[in-house]
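Repro:
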Amino acid sequence: MDIGVVVIVVVAIVGGVAYDALKMRYKYRHLASGKGFDELQQELLAVKERLATLESIVTDKKYQLKEEINRL
């Protein structure tokens, strides 16, 4: 294998890892400052509402009966 190819691959990997590390550092610094807390709280509430909807669909007797019929 050519040494130039190896150097390019190593630089690409190191660059990608460094980019991800800086991105994560910025994200956690932003969250720690409290600016992103309200956004996360709103997103969590939206996810909880969606989960409740999915739970009601899955626990519905008509849904369970339909699944049993489909299995047969």
